[in-house]
Design a protein that fits this description.
- About 40% of the residues lie in helices and about 5% in strands.
- With about 270 residues, it is mainly α.
- Strands 1-2 form a two-stranded antiparallel ribbon. Strands 3-4 form a two-stranded antiparallel ribbon.
- β1 and β2 form a beta hairpin.
- α2 packs across α3 and α9 runs antiparallel to α10.
Length: about 270
Amino acid sequence: MTSKDEIAGLGPGTDRPRINTAVDLARQKLSPTEGFVLSRVDGRMNYEELCKVSSLGRDETLRILRDLKQARIILGPGEVAVGSSRKGSRTGYTPSAEATEGAGMSAPDQAAGTEAPGSPVAARPAAPIAGSAAGPRVQPAEPAPARAADRRTPIAIPLAPLERLDDGSEVAAGDLVDWPDASLELKARIVRLHRRLRKLSAWDLLGVGKDTDAATVRRAFGAASKELHPDRYFGKNLGSFKAKLASIFARLSEAAQEIERSRKDGR
């Protein structure tokens, strides 16, 4: 094989990469384009063939494949499956407000963890901890006096289901291909919740106890609806996730009704 058959950072163009099964893809924060290329990696197509089936062009496809291989998300022939070196970094993609909220992350969290578009796949260094060797000791500021409005007892609203019920179980890469403009974390959480729907009680789904008052149940259902009502993503290309969201919301509605009946019956 001549040197021109070698692809820098990947090896022979005839090598057939495969997905590293030791990596939890839902925690890798892949961009939509990275997820698209990764979805084509099946262990049967070689690097040159992957470039041909990708709509991104050869140079961009190879760049993404190099990043994925450097992070050990894909493996070449004979390479051993070990954990990724990326550790859930975010690269090349800032999720929409919908994906950010659906994944249980605030906008500031996203801004702090998002790399500039086109940056290489690499873990972001942790921020220095006050008093550690990574940075100077910072004297904490005195807390501001609490205003009268701040002293009110906050109303407890249960976390929305996708974050609260996320069991972190493995999700196949093929289940995350649809809905390309959503984050992998959001899609993985929807898949996990959907397959557990009938195993969870009405109280577990809404995150309330059996002695919870009606107002709290309504707030819990409202929080769940805000996150999981299919109309939240109206106009999006959801693919298979449209049916999953519809099933989840239908089950949440059943759960709220079941809890209400239970309260009226005194159970």
